[in-house]
Amino acid sequence: MWSDSVLAAERAHLLRVLIWGAASVLAGTGVLALRAASRAPSPLLLHFGIQTAAWGAVCVAIAGFGWRGLADRDLSGVTRLLNILWLNVGLDAGYVGVGATLAIAGWTMGRRLGAVGAGVAIVVQGLALLALDARFVALLRRAVE
Prior knowledge:
Layout: H1 3-37, H2 43-68, H3 75-108, H4 113-144
Helix pairs in contact: 1-2, 1-4, 2-4, 3-4
């Protein structure tokens, strides 16, 4: 794989992260607006919306900073990028575990719906980021081999 192909793949990955982040901000804000308009406000929706919007904002910021640093990479640059992506894949899996733990603990320790909502939102974000990063890792591994 040539450096221009790697650059195009990295650009496409960052665009996917940006789209996911923007969609998360919109969805989280929509959930918060829906909750505010309802007569029976739900702590589950409140914390789900907050987590979704916050994670989306972080994804948008990461994609923006990554976009500014786009450049052609040689083999060592691709290897460094691949190592960073493997770290991200591990962190993404950790987010899923932390979110699941939070949701299960919130439910079993007194039906704390706010914790359940936050945990579910973290699981959703972790799974989405895991899918995005794993897809990019698979593509870059082919470039290095």
